[in-house]
TrEMBL record:
Signal peptide: none annotated. Belongs to the drug/metabolite transporter (DMT) superfamily. Small multidrug resistance (SMR) (TC 2.A.7.1) family. Gdx/SugE subfamily. The keyword Transport applies. SUPFAM superfamilies: Multidrug resistance efflux transporter EmrE. The keyword Transmembrane applies. Its main location: membrane. It is found in: Cell membrane. It comes from Sphingobium naphthae. This is Guanidinium exporter. Keywords: Cell membrane, Membrane, Transmembrane, Transmembrane helix, Transport. Pfam families: Multi_Drug_Res (PF00893). The chain crosses the membrane at residues 29-50, 57-78, 84-104. Gene3D superfamilies: 1.10.3730.20. It is a multi-pass membrane protein.
Amino acid sequence: MAWVYLFVAGILEIVWAYAMKQSHGFSRLIPSLVTLGAMIASFGLLALALRSLPLGTAYMIWTGIGALGAFAVGIAFLGEGVSASRLVAAALILAGLLLMKLTASA
């Protein structure tokens, strides 16, 4: 169950990052509230996952899901550019996440 908590926590990290962008520096109420709610839920689920997963593994995967997800959301919804070097960087993050998951002891 810890891996499910961690995955959902990572998805919520993407949600709060996107909502924070939409809040325009916390000047818009609804995106600001979504940001805070998703942050609290993400941290809470991360805390639950950390009950049984190693810190380094859980934290790397949590931030990696957020980083890759924010990268994808930026491209898909915010018109951010795609280049070969950015795609290689994202692939390297993904490779690191997969290796971390495959070698995790819990």
